[in-house]
Write a structure and sequence with these properties.
Elements lengths: L2 E2 L3 H20 L5 E7 L3 H17 L2 E7 L5 H13 L5 E4 L9 H5 L13 H9 L8 H12 L8 E5 L6 H10 L3 E5 L6 H7 L2 E4 L17 E4 L3 E2 L5 E2 L12 E2 L10 H22 L1
Parallel strand pairs: 1-11, 2-3, 2-4, 5-6, 5-7, 7-8, 8-11
Antiparallel strand pairs: 9-10
Helix pairs in contact: 1-9, 6-7, 6-9
């Protein structure tokens, strides 16, 4: 029977590291701060925002909320982003998306400075991930996968890893982060030939195909570590992932949905805020 690697202990350990950094900053008179920019009143956005605010408050991170109506103009949103980008008291920006259809989302995202892009959404942040440079931050879910592996003591060096999914949110950045840890990485997707064989060959599997309960018993073998990144709802309204968890029983370990990788992402976001604060403070001292 596979071990269930829950995300709660991972998030708790990461939060402890973040809280320690916050305390160190406070001793220097610095208060790490996050700006959350929301356009409209979508319930999912509000729920995520409220959850992020609760986590930030618990860690001692200041949150500035910027809320605009759904009919706000492109220019109004641009000015809000520019204000947060230029304010030295703000260290990170979380820009909730998707946006109303009348807005040019790509153009707006480009206005976020990579050093404040704690959600890893800008082209320069992704370039940093691919180049192994500190231009910005990795997308939070991709980084959450790495935090799960780190917490549970997985040494990625030399391991065969298959990432099923090629999105810029999870698949491709996760592959680059793993490659930086000297793993041997193969990126697959739903159109990969002989996908079952490719997945069974892996020591570590990251299931990020975006298809509900796609991966069943035939994909897994003994000794594997399986990280399920999918978030879906079944016909009964119950949350589930890309993996049929009960059928990954031969694996060494599998992350559940809910309660797995997804529960680590907000902790990663807050960690990024404090790291951003450290980088920006250092850069100001050297100017």
């Amino acid at each position: 029977m596979a071990e269930i690697w829950k995300g709660g202990p991972v998030a708790a350990a990461l939060n402890e590291e973040t809280a320690a950094r916050v305390r160190a900053f406070q001793e220097q008179g610095i208060r790490p701060a996050l700006a959350i920019i929301r356009v409209g009143e979508k319930p999912d956005d509000i729920s995520y925002e409220n959850g992020a605010c609760r986590r930030a408050e618990a860690l001692g991170i200041t949150v500035f909320r910027f809320t605009l109506p759904a009919n706000a103009s492109q220019r109004e949103v641009e000015e809000t982003i520019d204000h947060a980008a230029e304010d030295p008291a703000i260290h990170g920006i979380l820009f909730l998306r998707p946006l109303p259809r009348h807005m040019d989302e790509e153009r707006l995202v480009r206005r976020i400075p990579p050093q404040k892009d704690v959600d890893g959404v800008t082209d320069l942040s992704l370039a940093g991930v691919f180049a192994g440079k500190e231009l910005g931050f990795a997308p939070c879910t991709a980084q959450a996968c790495m935090e799960v592996l780190r917490h549970y003591g997985v040494d990625c060096r030399g391991k065969r890893v298959v990432v099923v999914g090629r999105s810029l949110v999870v698949g491709r950045p996760a592959a680059m982060l793993l490659l930086a840890q000297n793993a041997t990485v193969t990126i697959c997707h739903t159109r990969t030939e002989n996908l079952v064989d490719r997945v069974r060959e892996a020591d570590i599997v990251i299931a990020a195909a975006g298809q509900r309960q796609m991966f069943g018993r035939e994909y897994f073998r003994s000794g594997q570590i399986v990280l399920d990144v999918g978030i879906h709802f079944d016909e009964n309204g119950k949350m589930c992932g890309d993996v049929r968890t009960a059928e990954a029983e031969e694996a060494q370990a599998v992350t559940p949905v809910p309660g797995g990788v997804g529960s680590v992402t907000t902790a990663v976001l807050m960690s990024h805020v404090t790291i951003a604060a450290g980088r920006q403070t250092k850069n100001r001292k050297t100017e």
